[in-house]
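Example record for the data management plan.
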Amino acid sequence: MPITVKQLLQILPNAGQVAGVFVPVLNTAMSRYQIIGAKRIAAFIAQVGHESGQLTRLVENLNCSADALRKTWPSRFNAELATTVARKPEQIANIAYGNRMGNFVPGDGWKYRGRGLIQITGRSNYAECGEALGLDLVNHPELLEKPQHACMSAAWFWASRGLNTLADAGSFSKITSRINGGQNGAADRQALYAKALKVLA
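Corresponding structural encoding:
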């Protein structure tokens, strides 16, 4: 049962005009990775909806305040560093993501910042995703900002991390942890999930 534009807008009203662009590519990606049936689709749409600001952001916004930096990456930003680089997205990315996730060349943190509907982050994740999708994401990371690749990368991530099984079991907060590493935005994700289950019932 593919999702319709009307259903998507009932779940993600802020998607507005882009809903029509995303519905066909979402359906293609979900079908390829067995994200089928109300439980799986509701969990997937809720999570990608939260991660992408209801399909309005396909690249990570790193225009963070000093407070946000300390809260999000306490081990990477002390008070002095956070104050120095606040609102400087490129410097923030290079500090937050440098020397991990395969990012070992200066500038990799910014080059491989989060992109797609579930933010693929870090050179090694871009390489793994690119191999699965047949795309050269290491040399062209910006491809994940195109709707079809943004959807396909999210569905690939979902399936490769075993999230269909968790969706079948209704383990929504476990899905959030696998995507986010914690429970960031848990209330919004949960609200979108409840709405999606109702719309798709």
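Summary line stored alongside the record: Residues 61-113 form one domain.
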